[in-house]
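One record is given unchanged without comment:
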Amino acid sequence: MKGKILVVDDNIEMCKTVEKYLQIDGFKVAWVISAEEAIELIKNELYDVVLTDLRMPQTDGIDLCGQIREIQPDIPVVLMTAFGSLETAIRAIRAGTYDFITKPIEMEILAITLERAVSHSRLKGQIKLLNDIVRKSRPHGDIIGSSVPMEKLFDKLDVIRNSEISVMLAGESGTGKDLVAKKIHNDSSRKDGPFVPVNCAALPEMILESELFGHVRGAFTDAKMTRKGMFLLAEGGTLFLDEIGELPLSLQPKLLRALEDRKIRPVGSDKEISVNVRVITATNKDLEKAIGDGEFREDLYYRINVMQLQIPTLRERGTDIVLLAKFFMEQFSQRSGKKVNDISQPVMERLLNYNWRGNVRELKNIMERAVALTRHDQIVLDDLPEAVQSARLKAYSDENSNFKDLISINQLEEQYIEFILKKVDGNKKRAAEILGFDRKTLYRKLASYEKAN
């Protein structure tokens, strides 16, 4: 079923004609001949869209729209009218009308308009549901997500909750591997001990060795006093080695020994110190390839990779993008003291269509920027970077060298049509003229894109 439609028109024959056509097209249709009857139905039943005539006895279509918004504010109302005027349009917009259909009605255009209204209605319902989830308590700490890939990850985390098994977190940069490592620590018997993160890519070799294992006084020129390393600082807790694939080859045997013997030797010392530390590692590199290239020790790889958890990319997580965007918006609005309490529908659509090469970290930065820039009580398109605003408007360039980024002729046509619509502010008549289509063809193509996406 394409959607459940309520038709309101005092012309019974018109109601029957619309009902017959829409049912053939896959809609479920109910109809009434007055606004009063429509209100009674809406109080007791759920509809995806209300299609109403403008001119009716007692209560017209615009007033009906206002009453509907008081009862069920998320139902789109499509107005049928043969009497168009600027005053009517302003009243309709203020009442919250979703779209207009002019009489005499072209049934194909009506069906396409209603399909788009149903999609709009269902997306709003989904966003509302996701917003409700954000407001509820999160059983996974700072990790937000309800998508299938994240649920699978949470299931694996539950399995290792009471285990001391060595875990390696694999995934692209920005996916939140540090948050997963912190969750593993907080769920373990070591939760009362320290959680100590170290980025192996951030320090040169000599400093990294001292950072990990400590040093004694006089071990090197600037070693004016003995200093504990991160292994000792993490005693009784968890040491998180991020970007383990960047660990210098010369330090890898020393780390392997520390993991196998649970002993470390500070730089410049001839004594070993026993340590009680759980080590979790993370990487965005292909370590098996690094082994083949002679950049990573195979024995260390098997020692740290007893269990590997693949952290999903943001583009794999679907509507988690909305959850995270809402969470970051609330976080940054509280910090800044700005009253930003919503994300507009066009912004939601762009966020869901964007590629997110930088994953959750990129989304967080974009939402921080949007909250800082917005002059409204909600995030709007102008608050987003241009790359996100035009997420579905990428076109072919002969400078492209990566073939997986190239697109088909059909995709290029879709993106060009959307580009033209944006340039003419959504005026479909003007867009059709520029594109060389008749309006029916343009509506048909837009409907096919809706279904494909």
Summary: Residues 375 and 383 are 9 Å apart (CA to CA). The mean pLDDT is 85.
